[in-house]
Amino acid sequence: MTWFLDHWQLVLPLVLGALALWWLMPTAASRPRIVGALLGIAALALLAGNFAPAADARVESLMTAVFGVSAIASAVMMVTNRNPVYAALWFAVATLSVCGLFLMQSAPFLAAATAIVYAGAIIVTFLFVIMLAQQSGATAYDQRARQPFLASVTAFVLLGGLLFGLSKARPEALPPSPPSGDSVLDDRIVAAPDPPRPSIGAMRGLGSQLFGPYIYAVELAGTLLLIAAIGAIAIAPRRTQGQL
Amino acid sequence: MSHESIRTAVQLILPECILIGTVCVMFLTGPFLLGRNGQASPGLRHRWGALALLAIGAAAWQWWHTTPVAAIDGPFLSDGLSFTIRGIVLALGAVLVLAAWNQLDDRTSAECNACLLALLAGVNLTAAANDIITLFLGLELVSIPTYLLLYLPTRSRPAQEATIKYFLLSLFSSAMLVYGLALLYGATGTTMLPEIVELLKATSLTESPLLLIAAPLIAAGLGFRITAVPFHFYAPDVFQGVPAFMAALLSFIPKVVGFTALWRLTALTSRAAAESADAVSTYMASVLAVLAVLTMFIGNLMALRQSNLHRLLAYSSVAHGGYMLVGLLAGGGSSGVPGGAALLFYLAAYGFMTIGAFCILLAARRSGDSIRTIDELAGLGSSQPLAALVLSVFLFSLAGLPPTAGFLGKFNLFLAAWSSGVSGTRWLAVILAMNAAISAWYYLRLIGVMYLQSPQPSTADAPTRNLPAWIATAVCVAGTLGLFLVPQAVWDAALLATQ
Question: Whole-prediction pTM value?
């Protein structure tokens, strides 16, 4: 309880905001909208006044827990949901939660890229495919898992192996932890004779790695994309061949 | 990243630059040579085929003028392994272009030839890769053009099924491989292969259990390419559904690239493993040894019951993947035949014989696309004596009988496994010999069908001569017999890779 009292600056606006949103939701019973609006404004005001000093270690661990739990929960929902569209949307939630974890680990670029590529592009593609393929409604074999037992066993064997590995991995066997993400803001041009290895997570570190030692890999990936793009065009049937 | 370092790096991959440059030219000019409604002028495929051969010739010329140097720290390697793999791949790539020549549609021949060149470049880049990212991209540069080649030449139902099966399973295998590589990076903190090898020499499994998970994932991802047994299910169906040149390509190219990547990643055949029998490589070796035994037995036993030649050769390709795994596992023993050299020699020999077998099925067709069932082979000895003789040479080679390259290749693999001095690899050698005996049954049965059964009454007219396929067959015959009669040059190149 004292914890909530200590952190009322964060909790209170969030609770107020949630209340506001809940109040405004379109439900059967009509509510006066002004209450919701006032609640929302109060929440925003509190948040604006008090957000800056709120990020201490306990909040950080709370955030990690929230992101982690929501990632796991939405992944479970994605796998267990009967409706492919909901499954795709839960996948988006799982991806966004993982993005949050990336952010906590000072990997802003990775988080942004994952959010754009997965939660954005891939989900949209999924939804398009589901809607194009299921114009006559969901089929029976989409409603149930194909090999639930084997799939669960395989996934949990892999998970067990990973957890075992992580629990036994000694710190020095891991890669050096990247410096915190402030190198984005650091505007010194690196001109030291022996520059420190740039952090991969931050934008500048990533850029100098991509266009430094990994330039050949980037070019190769470009070739790969060219082949895939032109191949997709070539595979699509022409009008003269009857379809499309 | 100075101009100088970029220039040195590009110098190391000039053959691949030529191939990829030609790919871009083909992709970007190909569509403009078609008419408004997508029709091509007849014979357009000859021009694209000639351009592809020209590019391979130029790349081979560049390759011939490189000298292999010891491992370096740069982004690409130009060591013995990449030199040898390049030679094998360029030679057999030219054969594949010839085999594909008349099976391609005039409309899609530009894209198909470009894909062929791109996947040859992919194999070479995998061999030249010095870090795991380039290695993975090289592998994908083989996979993606393969998906296109599966579906572009023929748009039939079987081709559709084969493409979807191969596409999905290949994607899964790539995902597993990249997962394993990510864990490998997590365990070592570097993407450079030499640094990883150094770290692995100093690390034991208990210190870095991430490797314990990475090794099976990598083995599974690459096991798909070399059709090792739990990952072989796609092979027969895919081989059955695709044209003969694609089946030839699928039996050879994924194996080369898979074994190259395995070689680089396991470092089993390198000096590192010979010096220290460390926990990581013994663990990986035991994973692969189980795969090898299963692959040899299941491949050969399943091949016994096939009546479709493409399925039979698919299972034979599975079994040959097992033989080659034995070579990889035999390692670079201090005495006797190095397993790595035996593996490379066998890869070259296997390439000539399996591509040759598919080429002669293509060239000797009596009706339709190519010879596909055993019944169509009946009486080939009297109706087309030359084709029957040539096919017999390839089947002798696949079975491992003299006077062919297959005999020498299997003999080398056996000697390598036997002379490594470890009891486990000796058992592998014994199992290899047993499997060679089993496989002789179904190869020799085909020869019996060709010479002893009477021909079926021919219903269709004699099709037009497929000259490029005959040239490809001739090259393969020359290779299969030549590697037996004068194997020294190839053997020297293979030995170079293990030094």
Answer: 0.83
pLDDT of B123 higher than 70:
yes
- Cβ atoms B404, B397 nearer than 8 A: yes
**Residue B196: is its pLDDT beyond 90?**
no
Residue B203 DSSP one-character state: -
Residues A103-118 have a mean pLDDT of 86
Look-up: residue for tokens 């299910």? B233
Angle CA B231–B233–B236, to nearest 5:
130
Residue B363 and residue B102: Cα distance in Å, rounded? 10
Whose tokens are 């020498």? That residue is: B408
Give the residue among B387, B392, B326 at the shortest CA–CA distance from B360.
Answer: B387
pLDDT value at position B253? 94
Chain A with chain B: Cβ pairs closer than 8 A: 102
CB contact under 8 A, B27 and A213: no
- Asked whether the beta carbons of B140 and A220 are under 8 A apart, the reply is no
3-state secondary structure of A30: coil
Segments forming the whole domain that contains residue B140: 3-498
Q: How far is A225 from chain B (nearest CA, A)?
A: 9
What single-letter amino acid sits at B338? Answer: P
Q: Are B33 and A240 in contact (CB under 8 A)?
A: no
Of B323, B320, B397, the C-alpha closest to B360 is B397
Q: Say what angle helices B210-225 and B279-303 make with each other, to 10 degrees.
A: 30
Burial of residue B184, with CB atoms counted within 10 A of its CB: 0-12 exposed, 13-18 middle, 19 or more buried: buried
CA distance B473 to B361: 10
Q: Return the structure tokens found at B450.
A: 């060709």
Q: Is the pLDDT of residue B436 over 70?
A: yes
Interacting residues of A163 by C-beta distance below 8 A, sequence separation 6+:
none
Is A235's CB within 8 Å of B187's CB? no
Which positions in chain A touch B149 (Cβ < 8 Å)?
Answer: none
Q: In which band, very low, low, confident or very high, does the pLDDT at A169 lie, cut at 50, 70 and 90?
A: low
How does A2-35 read in b/e, with b if 16+ C-beta sit within 10 Å? eeeeebeebebbeebbebbeebeeeeeeeeeeee
Query: Would you call B189 and A174 a contact, using CB atoms and an 8 Å cutoff?
Result: yes
Give the pLDDT confidence score for residue B398 in this predicted structure: 93
- pLDDT bin (cut points 50, 70, 90) of residue B279 is low
- Give the separation between CA B327 and CA B324, rounded to whole angstroms: 5
Segment holding A121, helix H or strand E: none
Specify whether the CB–CB gap between A115 and A92 falls below 8 A: no
Nearest CA in chain A to B209: A165
pLDDT of residue A209: 82
Q: What angle do CA B188, B194, B195 make, to 5 degrees?
A: 30
Number of structural domains, chain B?
1
Structure tokens at B345: 């020699």
Query: B178 in helix, strand or coil?
Result: helix
Among candidates B94, B138, B140, B273, which has minimal Cα distance to B201? Answer: B273
Q: HSE-up of B333 (CA within 13 Å, CB side)?
A: 21
User: What confidence category does residue B118 fall into, taking pLDDT thresholds of 50, 70 and 90?
Assistant: very high
Comparing CB atoms, the residue among A164, A226, A239 nearest residue B209 is A164
Closest by CA to B451, choosing from B357, B372, B380, is: B380
CA angle, residues A87, A92, A96, in degrees to nearest 5: 145
